[in-house]
């Protein structure tokens, strides 16, 4: 994730990109979740290839020890969350979105979406904006920009869940910088959230 120090002009350009891609773009696309994610992923890939084709720096290639450590932390965190949900939240598969198509999308499609989100909001975000927003700044900013769509759609419960989840995933990525680790953790956590009856939020205005 370390890069050569950016000068003032480069930091200003990064700030403009942050506002444009993560703030203005969702508005232009009328808060359409899937379209926004596809556009952001495309821009992030192009910018990575333009600025630094060595994509190992954003977590696509990680030392095995970091992957194992991150998986252990992520699985423990999701496990505690799942046990708490079962004991306190009456989690149930029956609470998942109705319809075989939506359930299949949650089982099969969400892991792919999680990889894209982790690339956009963790790997690329940290690599591109950590000098502009050092230490915990990029983690907090990543969580804030992620909730723009649900907030503008009036989905405040989903915004809270998403914001807290992204803070946790950002913290995990900071200590175990592997996109695969955070994508797996993200997917498992989403499945637990869906079992609590909040899966319907995943399908609101994404298609």
Write structural notes for this entry.
The protein is an all-alpha fold and 207 residues long. It has helices at 8-28, 33-51, 64-88, 100-129, 137-146, 148-152, 156-175, 179-198. The radius of gyration is 17 Å and the shape is globular.
Question: How would you concisely characterize the structure shown here?
Answer:
It contains eight helices and no strands. With 207 residues, it is mainly α.
Compile the SSE list and pairings:
Layout (H helix, E strand, L loop, with lengths): L7 H21 L4 H19 L12 H25 L11 H30 L7 H10 L1 H5 L3 H20 L3 H20 L9
Helix pairs in contact: 1-2, 2-4, 3-8, 4-5, 4-8, 5-7, 7-8
Oligomer: single chain
Cα gyration radius (Å): 17 Å
Shape: globular
Number of helices: 8
Report helical residue fraction: over 70%
| Tally of strands | 0
| Largest sheet, strands/sense/barrel | none
| Broad structural category | mainly alpha
Q: Into which percentage range does the β-strand content fall?
A: under 5%
Report the end-to-end length measured between terminal Cα atoms. Answer: 34 Å
Give start-end ranges of low-pLDDT stretches. Answer: none
Mean pLDDT: 83
Helix/strand order, N-terminal first:
HHHHHHHH
């Amino acid at each position: 994730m370390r890069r050569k120090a950016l000068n003032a002009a480069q930091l200003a350009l990064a700030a403009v990109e942050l506002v444009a891609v993560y703030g203005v773009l969702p508005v232009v696309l009328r808060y359409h979740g899937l379209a926004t994610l596809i556009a952001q992923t495309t821009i992030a890939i192009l910018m990575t290839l333009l600025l630094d084709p060595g994509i190992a720096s954003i977590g696509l290639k990680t030392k095995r020890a970091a992957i194992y450590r991150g998986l252990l932390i992520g699985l423990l965190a999701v496990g505690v969350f799942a046990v708490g949900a079962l004991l306190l939240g009456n989690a149930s598969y029956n609470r998942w979105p109705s319809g075989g198509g939506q359930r299949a999308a949650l089982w099969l499609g969400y892991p792919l979406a999680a990889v894209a989100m982790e690339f956009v909001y963790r790997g690329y975000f940290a690599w591109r904006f950590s000098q502009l927003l050092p230490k915990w700044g990029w983690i907090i900013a990543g969580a804030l920009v992620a909730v723009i769509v649900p907030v503008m759609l009036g989905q405040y419960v989903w915004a809270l869940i998403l914001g807290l989840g992204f803070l946790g995933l950002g913290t995990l990525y900071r200590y175990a910088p592997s996109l695969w680790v955070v994508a797996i953790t993200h997917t498992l956590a989403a499945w637990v959230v869906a079992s609590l009856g909040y899966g319907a939020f995943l399908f609101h205005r994404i298609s």
